[in-house]
Design goal:
The structure holds two protein chains of two kinds. Chain A is an alpha/beta fold. Chain A is 45% helix and 16% strand. In chain A, helix 1 links the parallel strand 1 and strand 2. Chain B is of the alpha/beta class. The longest helix of chain B is centred in the middle third of the chain and has 28 residues. The chains are: A alpha/beta, B alpha/beta.
Chain lengths: 251, 250
């Protein structure tokens, strides 16, 4: 029997990057997958991969800024699987092309970044946590970033939202501990994505220089921590922030 | 169950009891070659009988505060195993009481066992870890090194020292592809823990410190050590992983 056999895992922002590799990893460990993302094509190709691992998958394509999308995701997952064992709040986004130094930033950008990187997680968790509490078991894993720790320039809104996740985790961990639900945060460092292929080599070299391990990991190399925290081996871990970042920040 | 440490060569200091013994058993199940070293000869014999391991296991008597003994035995073990991939430093002592009554000798003893000892072993193991292509150091500190508990100034300081020493090693040894991480257990149901309760504190009192309302089992810590030792943690270095049922919120 695989370590997560019979478990149902919900993952937000699962079509690409860390969310996608997380879904595949948890499926390999035997979990059924519920995935939500804006990218419907990405969800379709993910579905094939999860099914290839012999696991079931249910998906909702939609924007998690829309509360109705989150509600639909939860109800569809309930109808398909019946219960929620693992929730991976992976969704989040920096200001990307709108990023700027704080002194030049706009409130509309902050609102978008905090909404997608913190509030969407709180909204989804608000729907799932009561049921985990009722069943007396559950794992909530919030994906933060070393942006919350390092304080990179031009990421004020993103750093604030990702630090917010750490506080959210600690407080919620205390509330849910008596009912056997653990809540933890993972702070991932930069992970290699397709976008890196188009990055200025000087910028990429500088990113690598900041990492003692000397390289930027692929998503596949970092997601096993999620399997560890979701599994039986991590029964006694709650309220913690765990860094997976090649040593960029020593937490 | 897939084996996650197939043929990895492992040295576990303090491997004859508690967290060290649980780790030794788990690592053997996962296909590792394990050498354990412990100060207590009787416990070594008892645990060796309990483990019933074959040729992939050896045991050795070692006092880690004896630097000469460390610098002699660690190379002997590594040579015998034809290398060393993973070092787990589990040995430690508790010490408690009012600060005003602590003597300089008490302080020195705690520092020698909990901080200087593991660092001596890391240094002796370094040439062999450098030669490995899957090198990992896992030191066992304590949640008390992240957030203090009452009447344990020396203990808390020694564990905080081990946490920072491990982070420094992570930074300095990354160039040799050696990862270094530290696990910070909360109270764990071991003989050491039971002996440390004293007259005034009950197990129930201690349980109240933890959000999950219970103390941990050696297996809880062994599982975390396995994760950090395995390829699953290939990008994890310099972290202090608290496994403490929710106390430090690190």
């Amino acid at each position: 029997m695989r370590p997560l056999s019979g478990k149902n895992a919900l993952i937000s922002g699962a079509a690409n990057g860390i969310g996608r590799d997380c879904a595949i990893h948890l499926a390999k460990l035997g979990a059924n997958i519920a995935a939500v993302d804006r990218d419907g094509d990405g969800l379709a190709s993910l579905s094939e991969l999860v099914k290839n691992e012999g696991q079931q998958i249910t998906t909702v394509a939609g924007d998690c800024l829309d509360k109705k999308v989150i509600e639909r995701f939860v109800s569809k997952t309930r109808d398909t699987f019946g219960s929620f064992d693992i929730l991976v709040n992976n969704l989040g986004q920096s200001a990307r092309e709108n990023k700027s130094e704080f002194v030049e930033s706009d409130e509309s950008t902050w609102r978008f970044v905090v909404d997608i990187s913190l509030f969407a997680t709180m909204r989804l968790t608000r729907l799932i946590a009561p049921e985990m509490k009722k069943q007396g078991a559950g794992r909530i894993i919030n994906i933060s970033s070393d942006a919350a720790l390092v304080g990179d320039k031009c990421f004020v809104d993103y750093s604030a939202a990702k630090s917010g996740l750490i506080g959210f985790t600690r407080s919620l961990a205390r509330e849910l501990a008596p009912d056997g639900v653990t809540v933890n945060t993972i702070c991932f460092g930069t992970v290699a994505t397709n976008a890196h292929k188009h990055l200025d080599p000087v910028v990429l070299a500088d990113m690598k220089r900041q990492v003692p391990a000397g390289y930027i990991a692929n998503a596949e190399q970092v997601v096993p921590i999620i399997g560890f925290l979701a599994g039986e081996g991590a029964d006694y871990i709650t309220g913690q922030s765990i860094a997976v970042n090649g040593g960029r920040w020593f937490l | 169950m897939s084996k996650r440490l197939e043929n990895r060569k492992v040295l576990i200091i303090g491997g004859a009891a508690g967290i060290g013994l649980a780790t030794t058993k788990l690592f053997l199940q996962h296909g590792a070659c394990v050498a354990i070293a412990d100060i207590d000869k009787n416990k070594l014999e008892k645990s060796t009988q309990e483990i019933k391991a074959g040729s992939q296991y050896t045991n050795h008597v070692l006092d880690i505060t004896d630097i000469d003994a460390v610098s002699k035995l660690v190379p002997e073990i590594a040579t015998k195993m034809s290398g060393l991939d993973i070092l787990v430093n589990c040995a430690g002592i508790d010490f408690f009481g009012p600060f005003i009554e602590m003597t300089p000798l008490d302080w020195a003893m705690v520092m020698n066992v909990n901080l200087n000892g593991p660092i001596s072993v890391c240094q002796a193991a370094l040439p062999y870890l450098k030669a490995s292509n899957a090198a990992a150091i896992i030191n066992i500190a304590s949640g008390a090194g992240l957030s203090p508990i009452p009447n344990r100034t020396a203990y808390c300081a020694s564990k905080a020292g081990l946490i920072m020493a491990t982070k420094s090693l992570a930074l300095d040894l990354a160039a040799f592809d050696i990862r270094a991480n530290v696990v910070c257990p909360g109270a764990i149901d071991t003989e050491l823990f039971r002996s440390s309760l004293g007259d005034l504190l009950t197990k129930e009192d201690v349980c109240k410190r933890y959000a999950l309302g219970r103390i941990g089992q050696p297996q809880d810590i062994a599982n975390a050590i396995l994760y950090l030792a395995s390829d699953e943690a290939s990008y994890v270095t310099g972290i202090a992983m608290a496994v403490d049922g929710g106390r430090t919120f690190h």
